[in-house]
Amino acid sequence: MAKVSASILACDHTKIGEQVLEAEKAGADIVHIDVMDGVYVENVTFGPQLVADLKKITKLPLSVHMELVRPETFLPMFAKAGADIITFQLDACPNPLHMLREVKKAGIKAGLGIGPSYDVERLRYLLPHIDGLILMSVEPGYGGQPFEESIYEKVKRSVEIMDETGIHVPISIDGGVNTVTGKKLVEAGADILIAGSSVFGADSITDAVKSLKAL
């Protein structure tokens, strides 16, 4: 059974708290919060205040996905706000080992994000320092992109590297996740499905979460 990380980027932003609680009640495992700075990607999204506010109403872990440059400068504010997991994009951070250590020093789980146009071979050197991996099946920050079918092979390769190193961390997939792609992703070795539009854009958030969790 897959875990579901509900991505609030696809929420009705006037009802974020309400919809997060509905997803939690339906069985979602994580709340995924995309933080975009308008530099690394063209979009601008959420800040630490939202993280702090959600922390007050949900028992689910809050996963902050930093799609921004110089993530180390933003770490303290999101740590203080109550993030449980902080993931940054590998290509946006010049000193990833330092950043991973700083996240852990703050008492937070450290995640690594890899975009669709980057390979996962560097993963073997970073695995000892991470608590989770996000593989993106679309480019960060841009809506309406086609799902990159190469993600299935990338998931399988990541599993192979984990087997080779003897270090296993949860593999999450971000972008274009629905019941069709989700089934194939789980079969390839994905552990967590990060779902936005397929959950919060559905007629029923509850039914959408339950359908994904059943994969």
Describe the model.
Helices cover 39% and strands 20% of the residues. The chain is α/β, with parallel strands linked by helices and 215 residues long. It has a single domain, classed as Aldolase class I (TIM Barrel), CATH 3.20.20.70. It has an eight-stranded parallel β-barrel, surrounded by seven helices. Helix 1 packs across helix 9 and helix 2 runs parallel beside helix 3. The longest helix has 15 residues. The N and C termini lie close together (6 Å). It comes from Dorea ammoniilytica. This is Ribulose-phosphate 3-epimerase.
What does the secondary structure layout of this molecule look like, with pairings?
Layout (H helix, E strand, L loop, with lengths): L2 E5 L8 H11 L3 E7 L11 H10 L4 E6 L3 H11 L3 E5 L6 H10 L3 E6 L8 H4 L5 E5 L14 H15 L5 E4 L4 H10 L3 E4 L1 H4 L4 H9 L2
Parallel strand pairs: 1-2, 1-8, 2-3, 3-4, 4-5, 5-6, 6-7, 7-8
Helix pairs in contact: 1-9, 2-3
CATH superfamily: Aldolase class I
Total of helices: 9
pLDDT below 50 for ≥5 consecutive residues: which ranges?
none
Q: What is the CATH architecture descriptor?
A: Alpha-Beta Barrel
Mean pLDDT: 96
- SS-derived structural category: alpha/beta
Q: Strands of the largest sheet, in order across it?
A: 1-2-3-4-5-6-7-8
SS elements, strand count = 8
Cofactor: Co(2+); Zn(2+); Fe(2+); Mn(2+)
EC number: 5.1.3.1
Family: Belongs to the ribulose-phosphate 3-epimerase family.
Keywords: Isomerase, Metal-binding
